[in-house]
Amino acid sequence: MALADTIIGIIGNVISICLFLAPTKTFVKIIKAKSTMEFKSTPYVCALLSVLLWTLYGLLKPATLIVTINAAGTFLEALYLSCFLYYADRKGKIRTSRSLLLVLGLFGIVTAASLTASRMRDTRVMIAGIVSVVFSIIMYASPLRAMKMVVTTKSVTFMPFTLSALLLLNGTVWTLYAVLVKDIYVMIPNGVGTLFGIVQILLYLVYMKKSKNQELPVEAEKPRLNTNEAPKSSEIANGVDKKAIDLEKGTLPRGERASMEHERKALNDDRQRKQDISPAGADAAYVKNLPSEGKMT
Fold first, then answer.
1. Of all residues in the chain, what percent are helix, strand and coil, respectively (each to 5)?
2. CB 167 within 8 Å of CB 143
3. pLDDT tens per residue across span 169-213
4. What ranges does the record give for the region Disordered, renumbered to this chain (predicted)?
5. Which of 165, 183, 250, 262 is deepest in the core (most CB within 10 A)?
6. 258, pLDDT greater than 80
7. Is the four-CA dihedral 103, 105, 106, 111 of positive or negative sign?
């Protein structure tokens, strides 16, 4: 292997390791809470299948740098899933276990097909390579969802810049590596990943300022409808608290009751929306949906 190939491959390994470690923050939360909370195991199960397939491909080729990064990825994904299984409830354990059995079954089938379909090494590599490429491209649904969310909400909180930049850099480096070693199977998914990374960065630049402009001051929130809070003099003067109390007692006229209930629902929805798109929650959501191409070669 040429020196340039080795250097680029090592750089790709380092960047990919950073992406593999991205979910660490999520699992720290799970361990502290001793619960998987709202997190799902699906992204990690899919990632496990992807790294297993690419490890098989690297072994059949052979390609040392592809094997090293995906073997490390296999270890980390297995660690994440072990943690998830430990803290998941009964339904979560059953669902995750079934998914793992399916993944291991699919991997076994691909391995058997690659090893027995032909005695020629090139044919075996082709089978493993095609399956790996197809599965990696399918997993691009994750960044597509993130990009759709950015366009819909006109907010980049769902797509942190650091992760987008890492995905772009990772795809670019592995595409360059594939060009140098003339590996079409590595080139295709990472080339697609590079294009997605460019689009993500462009979306970030377009909606970054709009996200800041959309932030509302706390004072702009609607009048208080919670009767447990101390009433303000201005609210008493306007009859807000009296209406809220009448609403709780059920003595408010039907027309006014419907209006107050609608206003209360709108306020609660607005508060929930702000909570959902908070930076801390956005990072966790984005990490859960990391695309496989950014992690795997």
1. 80, 0, 20
2. yes
3. 999 999 999 999 999 999 999 999 899 889 989 998 888 876 665
4. 242-297
5. 183
6. no
7. positive
